[in-house]
Every structure is written in C-alpha cells, then in structure tokens.
Design goal:
With about 290 residues, this protein is an alpha/beta fold. The chain has a single domain, classed as TIM Barrel (Alpha-Beta Barrel). The chain is about 45% helix and about 15% strand. The protein contains 12 helices and 8 strands. It has an 8-stranded parallel barrel, surrounded by 5 helices. Helix 9 packs antiparallel against helix 10 and helix 11 packs across helix 12.
C-alpha cells in the first residue's frame, strides 16, 4: 500500500506569506515525473503547525487535484490537540487521499495510554488508512513499540513512520505488529538500511530536491540490487545530513528555491530563512550530490 520513496512535501509560500498554489502544482508534477511513490501533503515538513485548518485542507485537496490520480496523496493530519486531528480526518473523508499521516502530539508529552486514545479517536473518524508518525526528537514524546502494536490491532491503522533512527526497532515492530504492518523510515540517513532490514520505504525530506535519485535508489533496493542502491545513497548522503543543518524545512526550502522548484523560499514564523553561514553548507551538499 505505502512503500518506496515518498516525499514529505514542502508547502510553498509567496513572499507575502500566502500559499503558492502555482508552485504546489509544479512540485506535484516534479514528483510524478521523477517517479516518487507518494506525496505527503501538509505533514510537519509542510509546516502544518503554521497553517490554518482551512489552508491545510485546501492544500491537501489541491494536491489531490493536481495529482489527478497519477501519484498517491497522503494527508498530514497531526496536531497536539486530538480534536484538531479528528477535524482534519472528518474534513478529508472522501477527498481522494490515499491515507493520513499523524505525528505524535508535541509538547503535551502524553502517556502511552494517551497516545493510544489519541490515535484511536482519529482512526474512528476516518475512512482511509492511517500512518502513525513517531519523531521524538521534534515532539518530546516517544511512541513505544508495544503501543504501536496495540494500535496496529485497529483495522485502518496500517503503518508507522519511524524517525527515531533506531534500527533495532524494526525487528521489534515486526515481531509485535506482524508481517502485514507497514514500516516506513522518517530518517533519511538510515533510510536505505531501514529497508535492508525489513522496512518498506521512506517518507523523506531529501526527496524534495533529489526525487529521481531517491526513487531509483529504492527501486534498486526492492530489486535486491543493494550495491547499486548504496552508490546512490553515498552520493546523496551530504543532503541527508546537511538538509538538517538548521531546523527543517528551512534548508530544503532554500535548496528547492535555488533549483527553481518553487518561486520563493519563504517560510512562516517562527521559522526564518536559512542563515548566511549555512547557505554554503547546503550549496556544497547539493554540489556533492550532483543535483545542482
């Protein structure tokens, strides 16, 4: 259902801070042409926390419209208030999305029972497959494997995006959740190894600007051509690392603008543009990766 190279899509803004739908269409077309396996619209990389509910829903529905069935669109529906995530689920029912991706509630630091109840409530209000998203480095809460296993028993909770970078969890999740439960990496640096150890793919920041390389790499991995896949992975490793030299998506939006993929690299406060000190680092990574 969900596998391969899926992009955690940036949300383009005009210089006045409004969503740039012309650039959004260009991004969708770019990923279709590059062979990406899916798009996450308005996930955390898409600055979901800074969009209004109305903007959030419009960006997702426009992405579905622009995709026109050529590539699956997964909607980011995460929030730190359960009722807000439930609202997204209700509003996006019958919208044409392939699934929902919901990050663990940030700042609140719920217990494992709170996380279970949060995701259970979201799943009950949605008619599409649900992907859990664990990224404790950004949210200050960790979704434990045994809680993932409890949630995997809910019919439409079908996958986990794991951005811990802890590869030992793959075997734990597989044992606890069964062979049919989908495991996706959210950590670009370890994404290929994640798949080598039994994962199904990656939801990637790097994919925003190196889409064709990422698609090729995970296609090779699926075919068992690990040496060829690793050659690509090592070439784009500077992107995996240096697109996080400042808080994501600051570096990747600067890079996407530099490549002409979006008309403006603007972000919404509290995020600010890439610092002058960091620009050469990202530019060098793009050169080393042979994408610019």
């Amino acid at each position: 259902m969900f596998s391969g190279s899926i992009v955690a899509l940036i949300t383009p803004f005009n210089s006045d801070g409004e969503v740039d739908f012309i650039s959004l269409k260009k991004l969708v077309d770019f990923h279709v042409a590059a062979g990406s396996d899916g798009i996450v619209a308005v996930g955390t990389t898409g600055e979901s926390a800074t969009l209004t509910i109305e903007e959030h829903v419009k960006v997702v529905t426009k992405a579905v419209e622009f995709a026109d069935g050529r590539i699956p669109i997964i909607a980011g529906t995460g929030a730190n208030a359960t009722h807000e995530s439930v609202t997204f689920s209700r509003l996006l029912n019958n919208s044409g999305i392939a699934g929902c991706l919901s990050v663990t509630p940030y700042y609140n630091k719920p217990t494992q029972e709170g996380l279970y109840q949060h995701y259970k409530a979201i799943a009950e209000e949605s008619d599409v497959p649900q992907i859990l998203y664990n990224v404790p480095g950004r949210t200050a809460v960790d979704l434990h494997p045994d809680t993932v296993a409890r949630l995997a028993e809910i019919e439409n909770i079908v996958a986990l995006k794991d951005a811990t970078g802890d590869l030992s969890r793959i075997a734990a999740h597989r044992e606890l959740c069964g062979e049919d439960f989908i495991l996706l990496s959210g950590d670009d640096s370890t994404g290929l190894e994640f798949v080598r150890q039994g994962g199904h793919g990656v939801i990637s920041v790097t994919n925003n600007i190196a889409a064709e390389d990422m698609a090729t790499m995970f296609r090779l991995a699926k075919e068992g051509k690990w040496e060829e896949a690793e050659i690509i992975n090592q070439r784009i490793m500077p992107l995996h690392k240096n697109l996080f030299v400042e808080s994501s998506p600051i570096p990747v939006k600067w890079a996407a603008h530099k490549m002409g993929l979006i008309a403006d690299g603007s972000l919404r406060l509290p995020l600010t543009e890439l610092s002058e000190q960091a620009k050469p680092i990202v530019a060098q990574a793009m050169t080393e990766a042979c994408i610019y």
